[in-house]
Structure formats: structure tokens, C-alpha cells
Amino acid sequence: MKLSLLVIGKTTDRHVQILIDDYTSRLSHYVPFSLDVIPELRNTKALSEEQQKAQEAELIKKQLQAGDYVVLLDEHGAERRSVEFATWLQKRMNAGSRRIVFIVGGPYGFDSAIHSFANEEISLSQMTFSHQLIRVLFIEQLYRACTILRGEPYHHE
To answer: pTM higher than 0.90, yes or no?
Structure first.
């Protein structure tokens, strides 16, 4: 089982990148993980929000493989506490998918085509976070879930 976080646009803040690298390294001790980056669209000022979402959807689809379990990180998705997320992750990993792909949308969210083929949607919060920070927050939650599943002392409840 492999976990993948698919994002649009590279991380531009070096401090954020240091945190991403740290949690990615920690997470790799538990499960194969990749952070896959789709380059940002160019000349978006000439595109409507819907056109931009449609173009991003095409780029996202190219990154997906048959048998992927696709989870959108979307503000309208299901919210879970960290322990509940860990339990959910364990169930998904036991279900036999080769890869769980978590996707962060572009600045305007996801095109309806992406919503239609996603298996599930998860919200990290009702608050909105920058696309840079959500990467750190989510990778940390994956790491936290793995430590919870192993009964390690990282998570306190």
C-alpha cells in the first residue's frame, strides 16, 4: 500500500518545505509515501475559474492510475478527529487498494469531473488554509495516524 499526496504547484516557502521534508521523512518509516506536484497553470488571468478548474482536472486525471482510491481534501468533506482518521486509514489500507491518492485542488477547488470520480472527500477543518500549509498539516496528520496505529506516544488524548 502506497500513500500519495497530489498537489498543484510547488512549495515556494523554504520554511514550509523544511517541515514537509521532516514529516515526509518520518512518515516514510511507516508506509511508502510520495508528494506529487503538478505544475501550476500558466497565463491563468485569461481563464475563468471554471476553465482553470477544468484544465487542472485534466492534469490531475493524468496522474491517477487504475485501482487508485481517490480522496479529495475538500472543505465540504467529512471531518474526523485524528484517532478516527487513523482508524479510517487502517481500514482503507486493509481494503486492498494499491494506492490511496489524496488530492489538494487548485485555488478555486475541484472541477465537477474530479468530484464525480473521487471515492471520498475529507475536510481537515472548516477553516481555509493556504495551499502551502495544507501540505504540512496533512502530511503531519498521516504521520500522526501511523503513530496512533502503532500505539506510539506521539499523539496524546
So the answer is: yes
